[in-house]
Design a protein that fits this description.
This protein is α/β, with parallel strands linked by helices. It has four domains: 138 residues, no CATH class; 99 residues, Beta Barrel (OB fold (Dihydrolipoamide Acetyltransferase, E2P)), CATH 2.40.50.140; 70 residues, no CATH class; 102 residues, no CATH class. 40% of the residues lie in helices and 17% in strands. The protein has a five-stranded mixed barrel. Strand 3 and strand 4 form a beta hairpin. It is elongated and about 100 Å long. The two termini are 28 Å apart.
Length: 423
Amino acid sequence: MRPNILNPLFAAITTLHGVGPRLEKLYRRLFGREQPARVIDLLFHLPTGAIDRRARPKLRDVVPDTVVTVAVTVDRHRPPPPHRPRVPYQVYTSDETGDLTLTYFNARRDYLQKLLPIGERRYVSGTIELYDHMLQMVHPDRVVAETDLGKLPLVEPVYPLTEGLSLNQVGKAADAALARLPDLPEWQEASWVARERFPPFADALRLLHRPSEPADLLPEGLAWSRLAYDEFLAGQLALALVRAHLRRPAGRATAGTGHIRKKLIEALPYSLTPSQGRAVADIVADLAKPERMLRLLQGDVGSGKTVVALLAAAAVIEGGRQVALMAPTEIWRGSISTPLRRSPPLPGSLSLFSLAASVDASATRSSRSSLSGTFTCWSAPTPCFRRMSRFATSRSPWSTNSTASACISALRSPKRARRSMCS
């Protein structure tokens, strides 16, 4: 159950000031969500870079094609001539060392006259370039009065955007979301946090959304490292809880004697590697426990995963149960079942039944009627999954053994079957 302290973070993003239904649709597209966007989605929509506006040179010292913040006095306005909307609106400004032209396209005259009143001092931030040997700034990013200079973000985060959303809109919404971020209690060991010099979780989020210098946004920075560590640890803890929940129901212990595995190993044209031997031993030990097994066998192509699966199947057969081994393709099934048919006879009443999509229903019924005792089934997916699931509902050797019935039940869904193969 979610703690009450986190509820403000899961509120709809439309509860933030300035975010209405129209912007909510854009945020939903930006976050890749089908459900309504939430405040927490915005908090974890982290910047990918920053604009450094700390440089404040005089106009004579400006380096073209750089981002600067300059203090200028507005000298005069030059609006475009009537009926010529494509001509830019220009505002001429200066300081005691030089001149700067502010250029706007498709701008409203009343808006610019209010933003840049003649004779007033303004702080303008943006990229300055040379045009006709004159300093020019096209569409300044920020224009503030001297009294509002403290509100100008000297290091401005850059967010991933989508069409219809501006950087200024996302920045204002992020500020509103940060205001709802509670000071969460520390859940890591205090000595470990101190050793790593990690900031608190909430402070790390605030630092990334409002960096004091561009280095704060580096991937190796303390803020990013803290969030990454918490995310990784939380994911591992969630998986551990899922595993504990899945292990809670009682399992079925299957202890093998090893006689079939010994025969199979002796029939192999090669010796098992130490890693293969350890994998088999771990799986056999899991099978012998009275709890559900949760294990993933992972390895490169040719590392011997199939022989480990075969020996694990043999361990189940030794315990008096039936086994179904699922193969992704008929070629793979044939590459496994053919050598087994040519290998020395296996002990006991053990038969090998190969079911594939190419096997018709009559041949399948004929093969099924001849099965008795313990057997191994090699199968290919898709149509044969449905065919095998029909066996589980009939009164046949498939349904008389509970383990086999469980295998066939898993085969009713290919996705579920693939998950079963990884357990």
